[in-house]
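cache lookup: miss for this entity combination. No prior model stored, computing from scratch. Input as submitted by user K.M.:
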Amino acid sequence: MPPQPPRDFAGLFERVSPHMAALDRFMRTEVEHFEPEIRGMAAYCLDTSGKRLRPTMVFVSGWQGEGVVSDDLVRAAGVVEMVHLATLVHDDIMDRAEIRRNRRTAAREFGPDAAVLLGDALFSQALHVASQFPTTEVCRLVSESTRKVCSGEIMQTLRRRDINISLADYRRMIDLKTAELFRVSCFLGARLSGHDLEFARAADRFGHHLGIAYQIYDDLADFVGEEQRIGKTLGTDLATGKLTLPLMLLLESVSPEERAAIIASLRGGQPLDLAASRQRMQEMGIGAGIVRAIDEELAISAAALKPHAERAPVALMLQLGEMLKAQVASLQAAPVMR
Amino acid sequence: MPPQPPRDFAGLFERVSPHMAALDRFMRTEVEHFEPEIRGMAAYCLDTSGKRLRPTMVFVSGWQGEGVVSDDLVRAAGVVEMVHLATLVHDDIMDRAEIRRNRRTAAREFGPDAAVLLGDALFSQALHVASQFPTTEVCRLVSESTRKVCSGEIMQTLRRRDINISLADYRRMIDLKTAELFRVSCFLGARLSGHDLEFARAADRFGHHLGIAYQIYDDLADFVGEEQRIGKTLGTDLATGKLTLPLMLLLESVSPEERAAIIASLRGGQPLDLAASRQRMQEMGIGAGIVRAIDEELAISAAALKPHAERAPVALMLQLGEMLKAQVASLQAAPVMR
């Protein structure tokens, strides 16, 4: 029976809520597999109020009908979420972040040294869960993906305050650090729910471009979002000298003099003023270009599913893209985007 | 044909030298699998002049006769060595170590932030190689082992300057942080060279106790060794407040007053003087107790192989234990041990 098209996005999350409940139970059981001495720390990292985007992608790409929750999908969702949470533990060390999702980061709670090792333990356990599938496929895909995510993060870390980043470089970095795990989540969802390789590859392509769109949106939100709405400290890319699409497009649009001033400010370590940068973005009409880039990725993402319109997961997968579009639209309501 | 008993330890290393040459080639090929942007960094970490103890254990436990080098053993050796090198990259961040094996640590060379991620990429690639075996067994064993190694390191990191560590706690920490990967190296060597589970379990037990013996030796060397001979900075455990067996035994032997003074010094963060601690160790005859602990572990280790004396790997495996005994004996030549 093909799924009924959900009416709204709340509907989408409602439909995967039995899956998320199963994932909660799974994660609580996973905590028990850590050594007793570090179990409390593992629980702290795994018990988050995160958005669980990657598990949602696994569940949606492997949709098998209302209320059908397969153990394989739950386990795969657990694997990708644990990998993601491990990267957050390590990211927060590097960003010297104190707070994430309204509580102390692991680095702040347990110290950066313990957090390095704790992230490692989470990575290891994620791969251990991946090795519990009958074949090596999940291990192979997830370990390669994890390496790529880390490589993308290394590139971004090493190129802070580097203004010679090209659009291709930026694209390459977000491809690795974000789109990679989105891609694998969708591939695994499709594959583990019994779809053929043809559909799994389409889901892979869908996830890849959705991931790129998502990261561009995230970078835009860091510039123009309202903190309360987004739920985290914004302007951090600017503060840490991370060159993302908004600033890259601004650099391309302004006069050579203004460009030189921005570059000097970035290089000198003197952080750019968020309000002033926002105003320049508005004046130069940068927002529209970024939204266009997101829309392009979402279009490629949706097109990948076109030959498979009759498959059970497709309607919900397209909803994921629509949801991101709606989030972008709500950012567009900000004055700087008009 | 059973292997001829090697005459000396140089003989042991000579016999695995074709294996090590194959491992070198394998590691160089592995470097090519990293993203081009981080390949140089990966090469820096993988191209070390390390002792390659864990690969040696894989090769020796899977010994199939003179000059027989199996691809499976080389791959498994690559996996355990990459996991080990990844933990070193992260350890050196925590210890703020600048030099390892006569060159800059990755943390010093690329910065601690990049080193966190680089270690992650090495872990991921190790598991990716593990997933290239036909079954999930290697992935499962290595990922679990890696988690245990990290857990042991976390415990030791969190308990720096904690004088309430019992002998059982110490044993538990070295079990996890060192013996675990030794154990898995021997198990995999035996298993992947076609031995039955019975021998693989004996090899596992051999590796486990050899690992404990090795770590106690390493902790002793940190106290009483000569830097030139050992090839790294010594006295670091004392300097960083890591409570290891030598200091634990010293604390047990001295008068309550002296004990209180040592504890105050540890707690106050004021490092203990290495020369003075060495002298007290000599006066209290601590060395003999430590050597006894090592000998006990080596005896259990050798006993595990007794029922399998006719198997090809056993003579060489026992040589590994003898080699460690000889290293301990050369430490005993130090004045402090007499």
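stored under new cache key. Chain B touches chain A through 46 residues (CB under 8 Å).
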